[in-house]
């Protein structure tokens, strides 16, 4: 109201002469009132907004990618707002700062945080936090401000980490019991440990130490001890779990016979029972040395097949261990992250027949290609005359794009991305020349480079996903069925990037571009 009064008085008594004042005064009042209503409406519309975050904690495992949800209600554009994500108590060191339509990653979070810029228009200011660490746990503030309006609700992030498989060791033998110890490491938060017998009931006599943290560390280790009597030897198990019992790991059950238990007791009776047979055995050995030496060679020949079987079993064990390690490293991409990547970056790719090698046949809908008979049609400047290749119709020089290729059980294929090539012949198809691709050749999965990287054949995809992030200089390949990462290229792009397919030497089966659902824009 002060602005309204001041504007009115200024116009009335400064710029107008007294003779005209009586005529213009009603018009000036209307203009001032209209100005005040416009300013008041803009201020009140912002004041009606609220930031909505989930009331329950966001729970994630270490190493996962998660989303910290936050959006405007009612739905309104946040493009012109200032947005700051920061950990409670660390306002000056934000994770991500969005101001004047420009985003900036915080110190220590480079490459790990981002907003969904395409969602800002719909009021979605959620934060994507990648590769979660245990130290990332805590309360985060989602702050948005515009003019005199500001809100900063908090989101609680709880991070968990599953530790090692519990290991049981034998600490002490006694006449009537055996003392066992169980330990496990690298848990978060504090774990809980217990012992169970063969029927699955808890052994209440166990003594469990308080979980310990390594110096200047956040991960916990835990140890528990128990005494087991003769009648409880078989099937004893050590169990470690998170306090909410959402994560649980068990040790292998002990297989201990009564004979083993008795043989370990340092008792005089059993010592005597051992010494007498040994003495008699020494007498017999003296008389039978010559016979044993004579039979030695025959025995070794009989044991040879057993040694070969043991070596084969050891090779199988190492192979299974390698596969388990591989599955642990690649991991499965969380559904939320996968859906955001596929739906929000999917593009409709079609093949450009004008670029196809004369021996490649492109379908009428430009969605599939196969190796066929030599075509005699006249070539174009865009055509690959020597390399059995074909490019996509549309190229990309900005943004992030994703598409999928149906490979089925083909034994030979090469798929990737090509930078708009000036010379399409007589050059190696490697990253230095603007080609980034992986290929399968008779059971060998590898990258196409000067020094190729041989990739685990377990990652061979039936359907291949390709993600191009032009700004970040990333080209990433995924196994769509297993939802896991295969390989990534990093580079700097200066021209348009086109989907790239080939060579398909002697492969009569079609290589198809698979449709991907796209998010509504």
TrEMBL record:
Top-rank taxon: Eukaryota
InterPro entries: B30.2/SPRY, B30.2/SPRY_sf, BTN3A2-like_Ig-C, Butyrophylin_SPRY, ConA-like_dom_sf, Ig-like_dom, Ig-like_dom_sf, Ig-like_fold
Residue span(s) of domain B30.2/SPRY: 329-520
UniProt keyword annotation of Lipid biosynthesis present: no
GO biological process, one term: regulation of T cell activation
Subcellular location: Membrane
Stored Pfam families: C2-set_3, PRY, SPRY, V-set
Annotated ranges, domain Ig-like: 47-146, 153-255
Membrane topology: Single-pass type I membrane protein
Record field: transmembrane: 269-293
Coiled-coil positions: 296-326
GO MF annotation terms: signaling receptor binding
Cellular component, GO annotation: external side of plasma membrane
Keywords: Coiled coil, Disulfide bond, Glycoprotein, Immunoglobulin domain, Membrane, Signal, Transmembrane, Transmembrane helix
Record-stated family: Belongs to the SKINT family. Belongs to the immunoglobulin superfamily. BTN/MOG family.
Name of the protein described by the UniProt record: Uncharacterized protein
